[in-house]
């Protein structure tokens, strides 16, 4: 009976630990590389932070993009905007089937956000990306091309937000 009780206690502890895990657990020794605001026509939409164990940030290492929203945005809008930016930044046309899969992945991982809500994404080198809404994991996708394209929205030199990119990468003003 004691063994059963001990086993149940162990399972409870393991389950509770997993339930409390969040994006920070994926990048435990990471430090804040940089942060900045994303604004459109003078309206602040969110504050973004980039966390990494190493600088400069490299796709061969784990890093996390953490966003705290200051405006409400529907998940469909987040996904459509993301796909639009991925298409714009691509070196070559991306097949429609791939874009449809990535859109579906985003719709699974994203939630409608209100002011104060947080979404995070963790780069998993040679594997893909893991998404969180607040402290809850909402999706993990084993697709390194999707991960690179997604993070490129902020980190690609041709991003629509070059000042935010500089801040995220810790490159100053």
UniProtKB/TrEMBL annotation:
The keyword Signal applies. Residues 57-170 form the Chalcone isomerase domain. It comes from the Bacteria. This is Chalcone isomerase domain-containing protein. Keywords: Signal. Coiled coil: none annotated. InterPro entries: Chalcone_isomerase. Residues 1-21 form the signal peptide.
